[in-house]
């Protein structure tokens, strides 16, 4: 991967906002949007702040993570009604609460249903390997299942973002390219700092970037205190970034973020200082291969 | 991670670029003093000083010209002064001329830890020069700022430390992106950084277009940052910087957004372990 040195010549910066996530809720930060109306309003605020992609997880009326397609339908419809931001659904769903209060991982059957969400989400994410997600449990992502998910997504003209939580996940994605399943350019998300996966250090991020083939796009996703260092590093290498309350409930140490938009606004300010222009939704659609019909 | 406060060094003028490259390069001692004070007010805690012949703009190691910069800065600010001993990189002045700036007993002085091709010439720093420079700095209590243009220079500095010629903890300045030196890439910086002793402090310069990427690596890795017209005449693509303070102000804004505090000159002295004055 060639490192772009001239800041001003870099691609425009795509900012993704992950607003809700599938693990923590309003108990951790009351600003975290859970219900479709809240999610849509927050998406509009983030769009106005400069985000071009909105990464979506769904909650039931109690705020519990759910794979209920009707909730996804409501969220996407409401976002689409407010602004043209790119809608992206994470195929992990998240941790689904059980009657005894513990979380269980969403099943592969529940997760496969996401390829049929109506209206069509602009993008879907696929997790490129199996690992112990945050030591909460095994996050199952078999390669044959991933291949099936990708084929069914492509059948609806939905492009894929590849979430790579460790080194081998990059190679799993490349294996799916070799098998003719995954299309190039591959859109990589390098996810660092989640326990059970690759930790974040500048060296480890640099090593992962070194193994991404030329012509791919990549963004970095990191959680909590790693978000700023990883994001700033990625911005200066021409990569894209993600922020939002799914990844980070704090704005600064011991200071909860007031909203998703507050986190987006900071990224926009930093990007402008380092000479990265912000991609519009139209520009992001072209870079990511999003088609609307 | 942002634990340590950030030292911003402003390299005011250097000795290579002339006003045909940028009309904003300070030449005279008064211009260098004024620009240094502007940087100090903007948040720089260290200034790296070269002087020039006021008429021609050519670099010189004339100690009287250094004095005309150093004395006003000492009187009007608490800046840490880092005086060059590189002279005119690539033109290789006689050794004693290069070390003339040490007469003014700066708290820091540059120490180029080896020879390298630089643009069309050779920047010559042979072992006997390094021995002499290190001995004079040690005798005067001047802390060497060890400039690293490539990995062999770190090997040289560590060997001199083991020989007792340099005293730890060492302070390094990575100079990346010079013509034919180590490139200003994250991989290069990460590799060089991995060679440093655990107690070392370090700062980074990205020359030209490497300026912002390397500055941001310094910010996130807990290192320090050097900016200024010596290293980079453009503020952004195609737009010349109009003064040195503009570069300092941008790094201060980025550092605030990032949540890392900027060190005062006094805090910089503590971080770098400079002699008490």
**Secondary-structure element string of chain B:** EHEEEHEHEEEHEHEHEHEEEHH
Number of strands of chain B: 14
The largest inter-chain interface, given as chain pair and residues per side, is: A-B, 27 and 27 residues
Helix-residue proportion of chain B: 25-40%
For the biggest sheet of chain B, the summary is: 8 strands, parallel, barrel
Query: What is the overall pLDDT average of chain B?
Result: 95
| Percentage of residues in strands of chain A | 15-25%
Largest sheet of chain A: 8 strands, parallel, barrel
In spatial order, strands of the major sheet of chain A run 1-2-3-6-9-10-11-12
Structural class, from secondary structure content of chain A? alpha/beta
What is the end-to-end distance of chain A?
Answer: 33 Å
- The backbone outline of chain A, from C-alpha atoms, is globular
Residues in β-strands, percent of chain B: 15-25%
Stretches with pLDDT under 50, minimum 5 residues of chain A: 1-8
Low-confidence residue ranges of chain B:
none
Rg of chain B computed from alpha carbons, rounded to a whole number of angstroms = 17 Å
What does this structure look like?
The complex is a heterodimer of chains A (293) and B (277). With 293 residues, chain A is an alpha/beta fold. Chain A is 33% helix and 19% strand. The longest helix of chain A has 14 residues, at 36-49. Chain B is of the alpha/beta class. Chain B is built from 9 helices and 14 strands. Chain B has helices at residues 29-42, 63-76, 95-98, 127-140, 151-162, 186-194, 211-220, 244-258, 265-272, and strands at residues 8-11, 46-49, 51-52, 59-60, 80-83, 108-112, 116-118, 121-123, 143-148, 171-176, 201-206, 224-227, 234-236, 239-240. In chain B, the strands form 4 sheets. Chain B has an 8-stranded parallel barrel, surrounded by 8 helices. Chain B is globular. Classes of the chains: A alpha/beta (293), B alpha/beta (277). The A-B interface holds A 3, 5-9, 202-203, 206, 210, 225, 228-230, 232-233, 235-237, 252-253, 266, 269-270, 273-275 and B 1-2, 177, 184-187, 190, 194, 209-210, 212-213, 216-217, 219-221, 236-238, 250, 253-254, 257-259.
């Amino acid at each position: 991967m060639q490192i772009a040195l001239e800041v001003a010549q870099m691609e425009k910066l795509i900012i993704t906002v992950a607003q809700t996530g599938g693990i923590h809720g309003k108990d951790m930060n009351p600003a975290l949007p859970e219900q479709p109306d809240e999610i849509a309003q927050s998406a509009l605020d983030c769009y106005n702040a400069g985000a071009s992609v909105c990464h979506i997880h769904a909650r039931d009326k109690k705020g519990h993570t759910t794979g209920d397609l009707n909730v996804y339908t409501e969220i996407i419809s409401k976002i689409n009604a407010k602004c043209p931001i790119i809608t992206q659904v994470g195929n992990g769903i998240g941790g689904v609460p059980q009657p005894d209060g513990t979380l269980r991982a969403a099943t592969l059957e529940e997760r496969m249903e996401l390829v049929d969400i109506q209206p069509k989400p602009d993008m879907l994410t696929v997790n490129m390997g199996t690992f112990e997600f945050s030591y909460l449990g095994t996050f199952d992502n078999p390669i044959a299942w991933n291949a099936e998910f990708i084929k069914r997504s492509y059948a609806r003209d939905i492009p894929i973002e590849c979430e790579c939580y460790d080194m081998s996940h990059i190679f799993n994605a490349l294996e799916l390219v070799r098998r003719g399943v995954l299309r190039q350019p591959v859109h990589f998300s390098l996810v660092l700092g989640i326990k059970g996966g690759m930790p974040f250090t500048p060296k480890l991020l640099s090593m992962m970037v070194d193994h991404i083939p030329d012509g791919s796009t990549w963004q970095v996703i990191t959680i909590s205190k790693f978000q700023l260092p990883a994001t700033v590093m990625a911005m200066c290498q021409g990569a894209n970034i993600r922020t939002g309350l799914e990844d980070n409930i704090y704005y600064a140490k011991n200071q909860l973020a007031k909203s998703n938009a507050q986190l987006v606004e900071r990224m926009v300010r930093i990007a402008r200082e380092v000479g990265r222009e912000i991609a519009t939704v139209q520009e992001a659609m072209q870079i990511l291969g999003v088609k609307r019909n | 991670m942002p634990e340590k406060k950030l030292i911003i060094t402003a390299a005011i003028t250097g000795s290579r670029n002339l006003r045909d490259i940028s009309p904003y390069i300070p030449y005279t001692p008064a211009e260098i003093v004024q620009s240094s004070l502007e940087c100090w007010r903007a948040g720089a805690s260290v200034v790296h000083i070269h002087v020039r012949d006021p008429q021609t703009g050519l670099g010189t190691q004339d100690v009287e010209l250094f004095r005309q910069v150093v004395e006003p800065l000492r009187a009007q600010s608490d800046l840490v002064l880092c005086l060059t001993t590189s002279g005119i990189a690539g033109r290789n002045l006689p050794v004693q001329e290069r070390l003339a700036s040490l007469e003014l007993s700066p708290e820091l002085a540059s120490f180029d830890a080896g020879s390298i091709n630089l643009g069309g010439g050779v920047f010559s720093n042979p072992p006997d020069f390094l021995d002499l420079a290190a001995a004079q700095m040690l005798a005067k209590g001047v802390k060497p700022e060890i400039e690293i243009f490539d990995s062999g220079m770190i090997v040289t500095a560590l060997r001199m430390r083991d020989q007792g010629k340099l005293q730890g903890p060492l302070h390094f300045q990575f100079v990346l992106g010079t013509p034919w030196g180590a490139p200003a890439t994250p991989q290069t910086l990460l590799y060089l950084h991995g060679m440093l002793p655990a107690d070392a402090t370090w700062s980074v310069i990205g020359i030209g277009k490497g300026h912002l990427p390397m500055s941001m690596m310094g910010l996130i890795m807990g290192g320090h940052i050097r900016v200024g017209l010596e290293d980079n005449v453009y503020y952004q693509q195609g737009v010349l910087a109009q003064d040195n303070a503009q570069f300092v102000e941008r790094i201060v804004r980025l550092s605030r957004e990032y949540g890392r505090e900027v060190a005062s000159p006094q805090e910089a002295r503590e971080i770098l372990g400079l002699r008490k004055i």
